[in-house]
Fold this protein.
Amino acid sequence: MKAGSKYYPLFEYLRNLSQEALGESETSDEPITLTFQHIETLLGDTLPPSAQKRAWWSNRDSASALQAGAWVKAGYHIHSVNFEAQTVTFKKFQAEYIIQRLGEDIVWEQNAIKALRKHMGLTQAKFAAEMGVRRQTVSEWENGVYEPDRSTAKHLALIAKQIAFQP
């Protein structure tokens, strides 16, 4: 989420809520409900007419849905939208990946690779560039079509160690 983006203030607001929760003794997983008006105040602008449709509030983080990037990159997903009350409820998103181990070593299969990539905050394309492979290769690993070869698995383990990835 770029600082100059129209939706950056919403991202910053939600991210700050997450950081405040981390400072507490308990992490708050309570949903957060904001009015459309509150969001408009944060943005300093009105929401587009398309915000009156459910599709606008999807959780797809893509170039065509910049608004979703605000909440997804801040660690939230849309839990519900009430168009009558003009409110939206965000819920903290926490993906869980079941990571297999062989002794102390991570078995580099689809869940482990996706968890590592998400932990690094990278898209498949950026992760592929980091690994020196095609984006499609990363997609195939994450979808269980193929598993990385032995040298790639060692590279993944080295990266995981360097960034202290402890699933």
About this structure: Confidence is low (pLDDT under 50) at residues 21-27. The chain has two domains: 8-92, 101-162.
